Amino acid sequence: MAVLSVGRKCVKTKGRKAGDTVEITKVLDANFVEVKDSKGKSKRCNKIHLEPLV
């Protein structure tokens, strides 16, 4: 299983949304994924700004 795959819960570590829990909904390319926050809003996010939850 890839570290950052669809359905994986993560925490954002950078930016003003740091500390928020998100879920990966789509892998866009080698550097970016699409994530959905707790309110249901989807955004593109760099993989290096995410830390997977155990």
Overview of the structural elements:
- This protein has 54 residues and is mainly β.
- The protein has one domain: SH3 type barrels.
- It is built from no helices and 5 strands.
- The protein has strands spanning 9-12, 21-27, 32-36, 42-46, 50-52.
- Strands 4-3-2-1-5 form a 5-stranded antiparallel β-sheet, with no helix packed on it.
- It is globular, with a radius of gyration of 10 Å.
- It starts with 8 loop residues before the first strand and ends with a strand.
- The model has no long low-confidence stretch (mean pLDDT 95).
Strand order of the largest sheet: 4-3-2-1-5
Number of strands: 5
End-to-end Cα distance? 13 Å
CATH class placement: Mainly Beta
Computed CA radius of gyration, to the nearest angstrom: 10 Å
- What characteristic shape results from the CA principal axes? globular
**Rounded average pLDDT:** 95
Q: What is the N-to-C order of secondary-structure elements (H for helix, E for strand)? A: EEEEE
Proportion of beta-strand residues: 35-45%
Give me a quick take on this structure.
The chain is mostly beta strands and 54 residues long.
Indicate the topology.
Blueprint: E1 9-12, E2 21-27, E3 32-36, E4 42-46, E5 50-52
Antiparallel strand pairs: 1-2, 1-5, 2-3, 3-4
Give a quick set of tags describing it.
five-stranded antiparallel beta sheet, 5 strands, mainly beta, 54 residues, SH3 type barrels, globular, 0% helix
